[in-house]
Each structure stands twice: as structure tokens, then as C-alpha cells.
Amino acid sequence: MQSNTRTYIIQTVLFVVTIITTTMAGAEWMYGNIFSFIYDFVLFLAGGEVEKQVPELAKPMGWPEFLQGFHFSIPFLAILTIHEFGHYFVAKYHKVKVTLPYYIPLWFGISQSIGTMGAFIRIKSVVTSRLKFFDIGIAGPLAGFIAALVVLWYGFTHLPPPEYIFSVHPEYARYGLDYAQYVYEEATGNLALGDNILFWLFKTYIADPARLPHAYEMIHYPYIFAGYLALFFTSLNLIPIGQLDGGHILYGLIGKKKFNFIAPILFGIFAFYAGLGLFRTDSFASGTDAVFYERLFYLAMYIYFLYICFKRVSDIPSTALMISLIIVVGQFAVSYIRPEWEGSTGFLPFVFILGRFLGIHHPETEENEPLDTPRIILGIFALIIFVISFSPNPFIIIE
Fold this sequence. Notes:
Blueprint lengths: L2 H29 L5 H9 L17 H6 L1 H24 L8 E4 L10 E5 L9 H28 L7 H4 L11 H4 L7 E3 L3 H10 L15 H16 L7 H31 L5 H5 L3 H22 L6 H21 L10 H11 L14 H17 L5 E3 L2
Antiparallel strand pairs: 1-2, 3-4
Helix pairs in contact: 1-4, 4-5, 4-9, 5-8, 5-9, 5-10, 5-15, 9-15, 10-13, 10-15, 12-13, 12-14
């Protein structure tokens, strides 16, 4: 079997599997339950002795629910595909060798997921031009952003009647449409989608207020959830660091010298925000000695985590350690002065991926010609998209 044929088969299989996993994930979010057959199989192998922890609803998940999951998977994968083919076609235009997208399926079977870790294309030749990096980098987010706008517009202008929520939570029906004042007295465990500027505008000015779901129930509305996730991933891609799409865009706008000065600063700000509030001075001032040393141990592990993330900023290891300590001291100071300010620890895994694997700097190019005016305008527009799509706290779990 030829290499190209084998690659196409792998890509096709991954795409089909991703359709299945995202459809299942969409149904799980829509109905607030999971397809538990993997969990059931494990229980069967264990002889049924393990207590079942899967949430139970009156109606088990089956084919009808799976088919409904296409209302999530089709728009979500369409946005993802449009994003990747934006990169693909522009790379082809610039005669850069590139593969078709590889989709990454992800489904757990014992807890909810979104069915995928995204998709990527492989660039198989050296990109020699700053302009080409810019064009390839910006094409995906712009195309995906437009598609996300279409999905969000459809989702907010085609909201089902308020009674739709009773198909997800039949236990709410006894309260009627005033269910919110009764069922959220104890809100622990609920998940809300944190606002970004664009999402807030859609909720405020596009949606019919009489049909707009409660914040804790938006995850059950597939087009809204798919559009929100698209904005979330678009904003992550547009972070102007390293070899993210935003990194390619900023590199094209300002060149290597300025980029390699600014990108580590932006990465430091991102890491500072992500961990803000994780440790506070008052948490070390109270409790027993055992609690104190336990917290001190976790603090040391956090400093080591930051050290690993910043290790590639400089060839001198002590520089990464110094940056890590500065960030921690700064976080302690801000938390002491403004204890109500908190970051979003959910970004810390992405901080690790950026610092350890994707890199903070950008590869140098042979041709460093400055961009023309239309491209500069597009680059500024992409940065605006990042600002209006970025959610400081994207997924709020009530504890």
C-alpha cells in the first residue's frame, strides 16, 4: 500500500470516528446523561460488584438520542473543518506542501466530553516567508470565525420554546417555567458558559428573551454550545504566542526581533492570569502545621510547574526559575491586595502545552518583507476577533 493511500485511509477513519464521538458527546450534553455501555461493560467484567455511578434518567440513551446529537456534531465539525481548510487552501495557494486535516476523536464513556481534541494539518515543507506564515495562519481563524457567527446566529434566532428544558430535566416540569427559583437554591455542580464580548452581544441583542435559557442550561442547546466552543477554540488559536495561529499573525505583523521580545511577555501575562488566586497568603496563615507543610509542598510543585513551562524561554535555566518566582510573588501580592480577583486555572494545562511543546518563540524565516496595508488591516482585525471571542473564565463550575 502506497504511503499516500495509507495516509488517506488514516485520515478518513479518524474523521468518521470523530463524527461518531462528537455526535455521542453532543447527545450527552443535550440530554444531561451519557452513553454508559463502556461503563456497563466494565461492570459486567467485574461481575456487577462495582456500584454504578452513571447518572440515571427516566429514559436511557439510545439511537434516538444519538441521532439528535447530530445537531451538535454537524455544526461543530463544520466550523472545525472550515477552519482547517482555510489553512489548507491558502497553503496550497502559496505552494506549501500540506496534508489534509487529521481529526482527533476523544470520548470517555464514563464522563462527558466534546468528542474531539480538534484537528490539525501538517506542513511538510519549510515556510520561507513571513508573509506566507501570516497568510496561512490567519486564513483558518477568519474562516472558522465566520462559520461560528453563522452557527451562533442560527442558534440564538431558532431557540426552541422554553418548555424544551423539560425534555432534558423532566423533574423541572412540576415547577413550570418558574423552575429557576426552585431548582437552583443549591447550585453546586452546575456548569455555566462564561461570557465573552461576542457571546454576550448575541444573548443580549439577538436572542428572544422569552426563550433564552438559564445560564446553567445553555449546554443543552446544541447550536449555542457548538458556536460557543468554536469561539473558545478560535480565541485559543489566536493567542499571539509561538506557533499558534495568533503567533503566525503577530510574527507577520512585527517580525522576528520584536516578536521574540513580546511573545514571552504575553506568555508570562497568560500564565500569571491562569494561576491568579490559586495560592493566597491567608491560606498559609491558618490551619495546623501539617496543613501548612502540605500547602507549602503544593506551592513548590506549582513553582516547578512554571519552571518547566518557562524553560524554553531562555537557554539559561536560572532565567526560567527567576521568572517563575516573580510570577508567584506577583500573584501573592495581587491576591493580598485584591482577594476577589481570580484567574482561571483551567488555562494552566494549555500554559503547559504552550511552554513545553508548542513553544513560545517563532521559527525564523529567510524572507522578512513587511506586510502590505490590506494584510496589516486583516491582522488587526484578527486581534480584535481574539479580544471579542476570549472568555476570561470560559467554563464556570459552581462549587
